[in-house]
Amino acid sequence: MYSATCEAPVNMALVKYWGKRNEELILPINDSISMTLDANEMSAKTTVAASESFKQNRMWLNGEVVPFEDNARLMRCLEGVQRLALANGGLKFPLSWKLHIASYNNFPTAAGLASSAAGYACLVYTLARLYEIPMNEQLTTIARQGSGSACRSLHGGFVQWHRGIEDDGSDSIAEQLVTAEHWPNMHMLILVVNDARKKTGSTKGMQSAVETSALIQHRATTIVPQRIKELRTAIQARDFKTFAELTMRDSNQLHAIALDTYPPCIYMNDVSHAIVNFVHDYNESVGEVKAAYTFDAGPNGCLYVLAENVAPLLAAIQVAFPNDAQQSVEYLKGIPVPPIELKKVATNGIAEHVNPKNLLKYIIHTKIGDGPRQLSDEKSLLIDGLPLPK
After folding, report:
1. Does position 344 have pLDDT exceeding 70, yes or no?
2. N or C: which end of the chain has fewer CB within 10 A?
3. CB neighbours of residue 183 within 10 Å
């Protein structure tokens, strides 16, 4: 038996991918830019094993059996990697051997926190390690066919996914713009409002938007190209103010298009909008832009913030969104944040508008991170081809 175990990170988009020009190949109608998050806080972990003794292909996700041959996206990824393996030559075991795959997400699935991106990136990267394929841009085109934004999770730092123009998708690849070391103090606070499976999935929401929104093509052809240029410049210059404004404007536009879809797709809720108002009030209260929000297809707010500003921002969040469990390790997850004495400037204009208690389920503190990595054999999720007990 041969096996490989790898871990892949989540990425969070700044300029959003929303809408496809080819549903089967998952080709986007516009470019997008994302930041890869540290895998220590949020990641997918996958083990793939191949054996002559396996009778059939099998897969488990978070300990539950999931379809294999009937999963078109999974099969496209597997067949894509196997084609690369044949082209690469020197196979150490026959491609006819069946596979057992176990995958685990350490964060909610299908809740608008990019679980599918991390999952398919991890699957493709682990298959590549199993078949001894070096990391290359072709792997991003394969991961894209599992979940579009998965191609971005194959790189660390800031990443641009190019829409491409070829019908076969060969030029729709993900490119690393800068490594995590370029802007190492870029952090994120994820305010989890609801970690349940969202009502309208991203795939359906995008398809409906392309078919019915009058705004989406204008965004794709006119707004996004200029925004991409400006954001790339801001990232290179580590210009947080411009970075923040572009990020928030793009998030707002995504959800405007979701509302312009018919019938509308509503991903944000009242708490999401309260987070938006809080961020603008906070920036105004401190006299400069120190936080930026973005929302993917879900209600959870992701706040970009520099490391030196995390503690005062978190203190203000705890004033605006009080929670009975806010001192608990189950509420404040991820990178530890040292306590800070509340300064008047941090809560000016915020404390007067305190929201009801317990609107946030929990908060994850993370930062910019690197791409996927292979783990030691001791980290395998399989024993003799079967998933580890829960």
Report:
1. no
2. C
3. 19
